[in-house]
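Ticket #4471: complex job returned nothing on first submit. Input attached below:
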Amino acid sequence: MGATYDVIVVGAGSVGMPAAMFLAEKGLKVLCLDQFASPGQGSNKAAIGGIRATHSQPAKIKLCLDAIETFSTWEERHGDDLEWTQGGYVFVAYREEEAATLKNLLTVQKRYGLDIDWYDTEALLAIAPGLKPEGLLGGTFSPGDGSASPMRSSHAFHRRATGLGVTCRFNERVLEILQSKGKVSGVVTDQGRYLAPVVVNAAGAWARGLAKLAGFHSPVNPDCHEAGITEPVASFLDPMVVDIRPTPGARNYYFYQHKPGQVIFCITPDPPIFGTDRRETSEFLPLIARRMVGLMPRLANLKVRRTWRGLYPMTPDGSPMVGWREELSGYLEAIGMCGQGYMLGPGVGALVSRLVTDSLADGDAAVLAELSPTRVFGGQEALS
Amino acid sequence: MTDFRIQEHPILPAPGAGTVPFTWKGRPLLAREGEVIASALFAHGVRTFGHHHKDGSPQGIFCANGQCAQCSVVADGLSVKSCMVPVRPGMKVEPLEGKAVLPEAGEEGATHDIETLPVEVLILGGGPAGLSAAVELGKAGVGVILVDDKQTLGGKLVLQTHKFFGSVEDCHAGTRGLDIGKRLEEEARLQPSVRLWTESTAVAVFSDRKVGVVRGGRYVLVQPDLLLVATGAREKTLVFKGNTLPGVYGAGAFQTLVNRDKVRSSERIFIIGGGNVGLIAGYHALQAGIQVVGLCEALPECGGYKVHKDKLVRMGVPIHTRHTVLSADGKDQVERVTIAQLDEAWKPIPGTEKTFACDTVLVAVGLDPVNEFLTKAKAFGLPVFAAGDAEEIAEASAAMFTGKIRGLEMAKALGRDVGEVPPEWHRTAEVLKSRPGATTARDIPDEMAGVFPVFHCEQEIPCNPCTSVCPKEAIHIEGEGLMGRPVYDTDEDCIACEQCVAVCPGLAITLVDFRKHQEAATVSIPHEFSKASLNPGDVVTVLDLEGKVLGNVPVLQVRQPKFANQACLVKVQAPFDIAKRIAGIRVQEGWVTEALPGGEQAVRDDEIVCRCERVTAGELRALIRGGARDMNHLKAATRCGMGACGGKTCPNLIARIFREEGVAPADVTALTQRPVFMEVPLGVFAGAGGEAGLEWEAPPVHTVAAVEGGV
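Support reply: We reran it on our side without changes. The output follows.
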């Protein structure tokens, strides 16, 4: 017999770590397992730290608004500086195509009450000075969005979780999900056997494999994005800057200056690179450097310090999968964050804790309906 | 204003005066042509280059090797590593106070596609190993690009003013390192298929087996069939209170400032570590007119060659074995160092603290291979070889030899008809890598008549130049091979030519002549200090092998024969009873090495482990005690290893804290390595700017069979 818990969370990353923390806040005895050596070592630490509520789907909007609440009040409530900065997001338009896309989206976003507007060239240049003015048509700006440090967040969530009694076990791989009579009863790992009536799949890019152990086909396929960070310099840029113009080899790319002063940047490859290969490529730096310097010429003098690749656990429609699987009682999925696990994490984690304790709040039902793991997968959300 | 350039040196030519105008904080100064900013500042007595953005603590030179960024300054508006960037006429240099300000965009340069350049062999590093390999490859007609980040090739040979150990035939033993470097470069330049790219930096090996290189401000992807990593080593460092103060830096950094750039970086130094690097640095300091207050070594014996230690001791430098450094103190730079004796558990013994006045603390606690390119190439299946310190830390003589072997192996792997690597090459390489062997005290020869050499060389090391130069062939090495001690065959008649005295890299041979006087002998002593500093008639203090004073004796003659290669041969007259024990002439007075009254105890938790991000031992210890076992977790929580050096400096130090906390190394997860291994501006990756008209000058490309494996 192994140790017994109320809940086992598999994955100590963007979703799993806050989920374990919120579950413990509700008084549950929680075990959190991860195949890597410490919190956030899968895709969380590869996230660049952007946090926005300005999506176009109500579920993601709500979850991210919850997350922003967690991030923005954390230091006040728990003391750790997560490097939260409310610099907003700027989407730039240099061509009519992008201007039209952004303006269409704006209508939807405003309908959901989001704080986002269209700014003309001059106004946008005041918000993001240094943008190349030639050809700039304008863009959207959402001042309520921001950024924080995924690494610091993971560490802080882990610290609080363990303080609340969560047991974290690292370098441990789940081999089996125990079940009897249609109910989950625990897991077997490469190091032991642990019992619990609830198992949460928060395994990110590795979620499909875990779902398979539970007997489900969960269509989460990781694709790989590459990112980088520069030396720190004195603050010169507040918002996240997103350029959605496609070019050969890439769709959009985006960058921002985080609180300690470094610029973090990332590009979305086109076509997507599916798989879990996270080895560095020689194409990335020339590709993104050319675009960034073209968009904001003063970046040419900024020194690149480090690059890395991270995995986006993609679903067929670009939306997360959160909810119970009715066929197996006690098995809960919080997966398929599609590269937004960090910004969704605290929102999803809190929702998981309400699901497990059967204490759903207003609006949760709608979110769960939208993100149901058993939904029929249709087309992809714009700008996911 | 005081000029800190070394205009008088026993070995090095005078650097001359500065001619290139620049300003420091608006003050007009002069740099030498091609001089890097750091050295130009040191030449004017400026040793503090700015203050850290996290805690406002002062910063200055640390690696002097382009690896860290502690020496950053703002030059013409851009933050740069002052140890790497030459002064340009009219350059405005300012200290880097906190974070740099990103300048507004200047003239917008067009961006370009980044080229891919195929080549048979790419060599990273133009030191003894890389150059030797390039020569062998060139001889076999293999197309080679050799990349090195410095202005001058030769790697650390450029810093070595002393004569080399090893054997004359295999590695130029008896010749000064800097001359060997020049010779190797000349040889490499003669090879038509070899391109030597200086001031070029490799920044990453990518998974598609391309290597990113920045040259003249332009980025290129080199795609080699074979890669040779000959990147040398970087200096290890230590955690102690005050270790980030300007004036605390590596012994290699010191040699760069003093021997390459010829600036008197310090007035008084203290050395931590008794390996060859620390011992030699001490000797180089004395030659440059810098006082050496002392050297401490944690082990009961120095790890370096005994001849190096002996040399230092008999110049009057005390070696404090079983001692460690507790702290460096000072306001904006080092003013004092405190050491303490270690107990059997390697803990400092309270009450044994000694504090010395000094302005520089040299850290010489060993070297680590620069192996990030090797690791990545192996992971990505790029056929890769390694030579020199990047493969295994050893002497430069061994690096030359392994470079030669790898060169031949690669030519063979590329299908060239070069035959097999001669088996004796491998044997020689192994011998040259040998750690010092047994030390056996020597009997003083009984003879009190005639003339003969006396060997003050008690330790088995791979070295034999004295056997090669004796015209009577009267000196041979004990036993088989290079490692034994030299002995003199008394059956032969010594002709007192003094060649053995002159050639010995350890300055460990004297020539004693009983023939001329009734009461006194003459003793020829090798002396690598300025000829002008000693004159016939002067009275000098002579010391034995242990540095014990034997007496004061008159100088009869000082000469600098050509075969001594800039060393002086000093003849002194000495009484019979001490003549054979004389091993050297004292150059430093006793007061220099005296401790200050009182001592200070360090506060361990305040000590900086990650100097880039100013992370203390206490912060890390608290996390480890809280259960953290992954260095990446420590990094996430504290930013340790996230700084400008790219995690090249602190992983060893963090590992040590884990050990101190009783965590087994097997339970600790290492920091993840990611490119780039050197910071490079975005504009360079965008293909903007760079030197106009720079061609890649690709060597001829041959079609080769696929190569499998590597080392």
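Residues 58-78 of chain A form the longest helix (21 residues). Closing as resolved unless it happens again.
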